[in-house]
């Protein structure tokens, strides 16, 4: 294939890389004064990368000798990643100005762009080596972002914990990659699938287990979830919103591609791992969230819980299951970003962030619009109809039943009742408890507009998008089979 045609398939990553490098130089020469220009230009770069998905980047096939896949599945995941990354950039300046007393530094949007490059490589990888390079590029930027507030001890602790545990997970993943390579003689997904089709040896089975263990860390699935609550609580809230959305989409996309393309013939083997991780994440995420007093920690366990539901669709191992996961992640990103946008509005009279669940007491009378939005996000995360979050859970359960995994669907539905408790506790605090000191007035039309937009999407109005989202997700899933 012509080299220029292969570069055209990777155009979104090239746009992001070029934009990040240029903006890094602008930040170096312009200093603090360039932050606003760098931030808005970064959003434009993300928009350019999204436009670049049209054409060969979403339908070109294999490039660079199988290392990279340009297909509809990758394009679907990348668009979600770019949207979440853009929101994380938009909401950051006001947070840093009010919280640290110092304006946002221009390195922040550059790190987001570099992380997006890595995530794009993750969802488009066709080889275990490109998988690892993309994953590490995303992770290295994430470690810095987690500890971005250098004067905040919690932020520094979050970055250090994320780095140490991330290094451990990378080692586990690399060990699995080395086992798979040793017993198949290749790192290409196509070659690995051919080896698994010939019979799963003990070595291949161990390689499969270690690879999925490494990937489980990246999606914060049980039992590799231990970093999530501390990092979510300690990292700056815009960074936490980013961690809870874009990297989750990338990691789930990567797990799907590895499971279906590289290890599809061994579905019966990895399905057991995915089912265990799914049910354990649903139960632990629900139970552990009950006693949380910090809203960011509660949302961390909520993300663990929701990843468990997404894994139910992956366990099906079918086109319908993959399409259901993509649909679930689309709705999950909207619910999560909306929830963290509300958290950004939680500020005391002095303008400093307030993160306790108790501070939400009586918010229905002091900030009725904000209380309504958060109630919608909580009900939707719990999967209560008629909100759009109900359809997300319905889609993965339907896929599991269609694949013959009826017991998994039954247990998942039963476990979702546990999770509803802590979501309802938040709503009860807002609407029925004695009012706490009122939050400071909303000072950002951008944040308020984004809250309204995400609330509208997860409302019953979101059902109007089902034909479009359903067809697009099914087309993306079909690209893997």
UniProtKB/TrEMBL annotation:
This chain's source organism reads Sphingomonas japonica
Q: How does it assemble?
A: NDH-1 is composed of 14 different subunits. Subunits NuoA, H, J, K, L, M, N constitute the membrane sector of the complex.
Q: Look up keyword Transport and say if it applies.
A: yes
Protein known as:
NADH-quinone oxidoreductase subunit N
Q: Which UniProt keywords apply?
A: Cell membrane, Membrane, NAD, Quinone, Translocase, Transmembrane, Transmembrane helix, Transport, Ubiquinone
Q: Report the EC number(s), separated by commas if there are several.
A: 7.1.1.-
- Which regions span the lipid bilayer? 6-30, 37-55, 75-96, 108-125, 162-184, 204-227, 239-260, 272-291, 298-316, 322-344, 370-392, 404-424, 445-466
Membrane topology, as annotated, equals: Multi-pass membrane protein
Its lineage opens with: Bacteria, Pseudomonadati, Pseudomonadota, Alphaproteobacteria, Sphingomonadales
């Amino acid at each position: 294939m012509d080299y220029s045609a292969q570069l055209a398939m990777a155009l979104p990553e090239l746009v992001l890389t070029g934009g990040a490098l240029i903006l890094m130089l602008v930040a170096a020469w312009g200093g603090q004064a360039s932050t606003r220009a760098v931030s808005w230009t970064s959003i434009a770069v993300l928009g350019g990368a999204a436009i670049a998905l049209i054409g060969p980047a979403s339908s070109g096939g294999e490039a660079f000798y199988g290392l990279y896949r340009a297909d509809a599945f990758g394009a679907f995941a990348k668009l979600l990643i770019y949207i979440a990354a853009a929101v994380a950039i938009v909401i950051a300046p006001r947070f840093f100005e009010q919280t640290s007393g110092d304006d946002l530094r221009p390195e922040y949007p550059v790190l987001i762009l570099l992380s997006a490059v890595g995530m794009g490589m993750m969802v488009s990888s066709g080889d275990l080596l490109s998988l690892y390079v993309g994953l590490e590029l995303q992770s290295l930027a994430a470690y810095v972002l987690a500890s971005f507030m250098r004067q905040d001890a919690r932020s520094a602790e979050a970055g250090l914990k994320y780095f140490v545990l991330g290094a451990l997970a990378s080692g586990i993943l690399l060990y699995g990659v080395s086992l798979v390579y040793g017993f198949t003689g290749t790192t290409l997904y196509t070659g690995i699938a051919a080896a698994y089709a010939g019979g799963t040896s003990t070595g291949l089975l161990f390689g499969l287990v270690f690879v999925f263990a490494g990937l489980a860390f990246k999606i914060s699935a049980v039992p590799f979830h231990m970093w999530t609550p501390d990092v979510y609580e300690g990292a700056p809230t815009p960074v936490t919103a980013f961690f809870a959305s874009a990297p989750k989409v990338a990691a789930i996309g990567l797990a799907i591609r590895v499971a279906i393309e590289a290890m599809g013939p061994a579905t019966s083997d990895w399905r057991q791992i995915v089912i265990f991780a799914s049910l354990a994440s649903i139960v632990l995420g629900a139970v552990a969230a009950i006693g949380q007093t910090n809203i960011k920690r509660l949302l961390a366990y909520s993300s663990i819980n929701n990843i468990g539901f997404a894994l139910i669709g992956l366990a099906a191992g079918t086109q319908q299951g993959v399409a259901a996961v993509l649909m679930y992640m689309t709705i999950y990103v909207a619910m999560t970003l909306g929830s963290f946008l509300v958290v950004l509005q939680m500020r005391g009279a002095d303008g400093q962030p307030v993160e306790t669940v108790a501070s939400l007491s009586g918010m229905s009378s002091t900030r009725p619009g904000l209380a309504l939005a958060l109630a919608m996000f909580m009900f939707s995360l719990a999967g209560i109809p008629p909100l759009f979050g109900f359809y997300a859970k319905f889609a993965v359960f339907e896929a599991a039943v269609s694949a013959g995994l009826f017991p998994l669907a039954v247990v998942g539905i039963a476990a979702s009742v546990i999770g509803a408790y802590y979501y309802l506790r938040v709503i009860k605090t807002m609407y029925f408890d004695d009012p706490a000191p009122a939050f400071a007035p909303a000072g950002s039309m951008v944040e308020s507009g984004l809250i309204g937009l995400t609330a509208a999407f997860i409302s019953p109005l979101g059902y109007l998008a089902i034909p479009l989202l359903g067809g697009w997700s099914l087309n993306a899933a079909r690209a893997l089979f």
